[in-house]
């Protein structure tokens, strides 16, 4: 599936008060030197890639620039692009897109090319110096008990109306599980695929009549609804006031309020005993230094013989180690405090910190790439409604890039998503 969008520059619509780092182009002698180096490295990298990078003067760079079917990246203001790239690295690359310095008919396709070659984009000596020149994580975005709610609110409390525009009727904001009987281009039933994913998670956790279920990360309530419909007694915890409000309304409308409790509560403060624990793509908001706490909490509240099903976005272990201290564009603008673990790290933490056993892992990366592609299409289809909600052009470009960036990660194999089953001894 191809998503074509108008390739235009939105720089005239920038709002400096709202986007100071996007409105401001780095200047000064040091900025000019950094820009010259960044542009040289960028040109060196793209000459070896299957992409068409188009300049205003007609120059086209790429491994095979005359090949018109390759993904396209259009530079409108090469000097500003280079200045941002030199000053901010990948954060500057993203801010240049937000500012309209570059664009693409299909940003996900262009970014997939870069993601697939991430190991070789920079010369080896510069990769070795990564920790010297990249930005560091702000202390205020650590996922401590005092910071986590603010981090969550910055993303999930943006606007329920916004999320409703590009999610399906289940309001499920995580990887769907499409049928194995049809190829990806024909995967169109997003709501059905989301229900299939949730049902598989509930099956993994052994959720049925009478199950005492803890859900860590409520979302907008679809998993709690489906678990309660199976006869489970559900306690769900979240840090998003907006999501909780909508989830409670949906639970009440379904007549299941007597079976579901939704608390505005940090997972670290959960008390009680549960037969099963389920958490879908919440672990990415836990943070590296709190992974032990997360799994110890599950171990503490899980009854003997209990089962826990975790859905987690992951990355290769060596890439996780190389980027763990890097402050990224996604962390700055989309998910403050976000951290993607490797499956190896998760297994190590579970083993050293708990009595739980990793029983099963299922990878679903291709399914997430397609889920994100469908979200992007729905987001573009509702562009006018996004504007009516009060989101300016910079936000819309930012959100477009976020969805495309994520799709590229899964499509290239740089990212994956796993459903993981943990069990606790009956002794």
Order of helices and strands: HHEEEHHEHHHHHHEHEHEEHEHHHEHHHE
What's the total count of β strands? 11
Can you count the helices? 19
Task: Name the beta content range.
Answer: 5-15%
CATH architecture of the largest domain: 3-Layer(aba) Sandwich
Widest beta sheet: strand line-up: 7-6-5-8-9-11-10
Largest sheet: 7 strands, mixed
User: pLDDT average, as an integer?
Assistant: 93
Q: Compute the gyration radius: what is it?
A: 22 Å
Instruction: List low-pLDDT spans.
Output: 1-16
Count of discrete domains:
2
Q: SS-based structural class?
A: alpha/beta
CATH class of the largest domain: Alpha Beta
Residues in helix, %: 40-55%
Which term fits the overall shape? Answer: globular
Termini Cα gap: 51 Å
CATH superfamily of the largest domain: Vaccinia Virus protein VP39
């Amino acid at each position: 599936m191809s998503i074509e969008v108008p390739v235009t520059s939105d720089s005239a619509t920038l709002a400096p008060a709202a986007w100071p780092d996007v409105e401001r182009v780095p200047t000064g002698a040091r900025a000019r030197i950094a820009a010259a180096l960044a542009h040289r490295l960028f040109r060196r990298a793209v000459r070896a890639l299957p992409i068409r990078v188009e300049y205003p003067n007609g120059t086209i760079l790429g491994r095979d620039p005359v090949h018109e079917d390759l993904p396209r990246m259009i530079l409108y203001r090469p000097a500003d692009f280079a200045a941002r790239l030199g000053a901010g690295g990948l954060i500057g690359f993203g801010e240049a897109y937000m500012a309209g310095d570059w664009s693409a008919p299909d940003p996900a396709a262009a970014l997939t090319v870069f993601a697939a070659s991430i190991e070789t984009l920079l010369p080896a000596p510069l990769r070795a110096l990564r920790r010297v020149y990249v930005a560091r994580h702000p202390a205020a975005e650590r996922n401590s008990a005092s910071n986590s709610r603010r981090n969550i609110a910055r993303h999930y409390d943006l606007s329920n109306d916004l999320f409703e525009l590009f999610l399906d009727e289940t309001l499920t904001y995580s990887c769907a599980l499409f049928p194995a009987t049809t190829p990806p281009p024909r995967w169109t039933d997003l709501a059905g695929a989301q229900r299939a994913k949730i049902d598989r998670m509930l099956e993994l956790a052994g959720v049925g009549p009478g199950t005492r279920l803890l859900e860590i990360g409520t979302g907008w309530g679809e998993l709690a609804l489906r678990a309660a419909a199976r006869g489970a007694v559900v306690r769900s915890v979240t840090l998003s006031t907006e999501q909780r409000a909508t989830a409670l309304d949906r639970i009440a409308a379904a007549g299941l309020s007597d079976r579901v409790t939704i608390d505005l509560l940090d997972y670290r403060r959960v008390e009680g005993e549960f037969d099963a624990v389920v958490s879908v793509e919440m672990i990415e908001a836990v943070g590296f230094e709190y992974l032990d706490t997360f799994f110890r909490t599950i171990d503490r509240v899980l009854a003997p013989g209990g089962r826990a099903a975790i859905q987690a976005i992951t990355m290769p272990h060596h890439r996780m180690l190389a980027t763990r201290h890097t402050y990224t564009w996604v962390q700055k603008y989309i998910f403050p405090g976000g951290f993607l673990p490797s499956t190896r790290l998760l297994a190590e933490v579970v083993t050293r910190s708990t009595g739980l056993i990793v029983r099963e892992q299922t990878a679903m990366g291709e399914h997430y790439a397609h889920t994100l592609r469908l979200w992007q299409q729905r987001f573009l289809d509702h562009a006018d409604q996004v504007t009516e909600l009060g989101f300016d052009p910079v936000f819309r470009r930012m959100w477009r890039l976020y969805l495309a960036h994520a799709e590229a990660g899964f499509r290239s194999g740089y990212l994956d998503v796993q459903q993981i089953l943990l069990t606790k001894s009956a002794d």
